[in-house]
Amino acid sequence: MINIQRSIKLNEKYQQAEQYSKKLEGISRITNWHETKVKYDNANQNKYARKMIDQEMKYALKEVKMVRNVKLKELYEQEAKQWEQELSQKGLAIYKHKH
């Protein structure tokens, strides 16, 4: 009789341990799913952020080129006027061909 009761208690412990093991396996699957999802979500977010940064850099470079061209044009015009004034002071002039 005592052996039967011990056997029943032992079987109950095994059953509880098996249920606990199944519960942990379920938690492990869910955890792995979340970790994978976060990993790929972060990768996608980083990819999108990199794309946006590249696009902003492209536009910034384009704007810098435009500003540089305007500044160079202004500089060339200013230097041309200064050169004409210097020549004018010496009684000289630049011949400008008109179309």
Plain-language structure description:
- By secondary structure, the chain is mainly α.
- The chain is 89% helix and 0% strand.
- It contains one helix and no strands.
- It has one helix spanning 2-89.
- It holds the Pfam family CFAP141.
- InterPro entries: CFAP141 (IPR029375).
Q: Could you write a compact summary of the structure shown?
A:
The chain is mainly alpha-helical. It has one helix and no strands. The longest helix has 88 residues, at 2-89.
Strand elements, count: 0
Tally the helices.
1
Average pLDDT reading: 91
Question: What is the general shape?
Answer: rod-shaped
Helix content: over 70%
Stretches where pLDDT is under 50 for at least 5 consecutive residues are none
- The oligomerization state is single chain
Largest sheet: none
Q: Pairing-aware structural class of the strands and helices?
A: mainly alpha
Spell out the helices and strands N to C: H
For this entry, give a set of tags.
single chain, 99 residues, mainly alpha, 1 helix, CFAP141
Topology:
Elements: H1 2-89
